[in-house]
From TrEMBL:
Xref: InterPro entries: AMY1
Recorded coiled-coil stretches: 62-89
GO molecular function: transcription coactivator activity
Organism: Megalops atlanticus (Tarpon)
GO cellular component, one term: nucleus
Keyword annotations of the record: Coiled coil, Nucleus
Record-linked CDD domains: ZIP_MycBP-like
Primary localization: nucleus
Gene3D superfamilies, per the entry: 6.10.250.1060
Entry protein name: c-Myc-binding protein
Subcellular location: Nucleus
Upper lineage: Eukaryota, Metazoa, Chordata, Craniata, Vertebrata
Domain of life: Eukaryota
Family: Belongs to the AMY1 family.
């Protein structure tokens, strides 16, 4: 009987810990949101992860996304430079705006 009380005490301590840390409130909120869904998701665990903020890219995906971001930034910089050059060329061949309005 003493073993039962000791484990019950540990359970109660753990329950208080979860309550104090806000875990019980978070889980309750997410479970309520799942309950209130009109169309239940196929994967309830994914729903829980998404609503708890757990879902995110996997580490391999993160590396791929970082590489893609670096490439896109480089391309963006090149396009900005090209745009600037083209605007300068355009200014050489087009008459100034003031001259065009006098016609």
């Amino acid at each position: 009987m003493a073993h039962y009380r000791a484990s019950e005490s540990k359970r109660e301590q753990f329950r208080r810990y979860l309550e104090k840390a806000g875990v019980l409130d978070s889980l309750t909120s997410v479970l309520i949101a799942l309950y209130e869904e009109t169309e239940k998701p196929n994967n309830a665990v994914d729903f829980l992860k998404q609503h708890l903020g757990v879902t995110g890219p996997e580490p391999a995906d993160t590396q791929t996304l970082r590489l893609e971001l670096a490439e896109l930034r480089q391309k963006y910089d090149l396009l900005l430079e090209e745009n600037k050059e083209l605007k300068n060329k355009l200014l050489q061949y087009e008459p100034a705006q003031e001259e065009g309005t006098n016609e």
